[in-house]
Design goal:
Blueprint lengths: L1 H18 L1 H10 L5 H35 L3 H14 L5 H15 L1
Helix pairs in contact: 3-4, 3-5
């Protein structure tokens, strides 16, 4: 009974927030600008890196692990560690989906 009550209370609060004009204004201010730069920004920062990670993730990770062996400075080791961290798991379906959702949001 308590769970059902909390569910209704949370739902009512979410609807109240969604209908608030300040919330709508803030949401619209976050929307990417309908320009070539908005389009290019979404493509370059969300979609292209994930496609590269899906296609070349294994090779990039192998390169970075080999580079860690011969790294001579802390900056090099940090660079190679970041490459391993970014590409070890391959591409992220979440980021790719987010990129396509932002493209849809940009044009609609």
């Amino acid at each position: 009974m308590l769970i059902l009550f909390m569910h209704h209370k949370i739902k009512a609060k979410a609807e109240q927030i969604a209908k608030n004009p300040a919330t709508k204004k803030a949401f619209m201010s976050m929307k990417p600008e309908k320009s070539i730069w908005g389009f290019v920004g979404v493509i370059l920062f969300f979609i292209v890196p994930e496609i590269i990670a899906f296609i070349y993730g294994v090779e990039i990770t192998h390169y970075a692990k080999e580079g860690l062996i011969i790294a001579s400075s802390a900056v090099e080791r940090q660079y190679y560690n970041l490459l391993v961290m970014l590409f070890e798991e391959g591409g992220s379906w979440f980021n790719l989906t987010l990129g396509f959702a932002l493209l849809l949001w940009l044009f609609f």
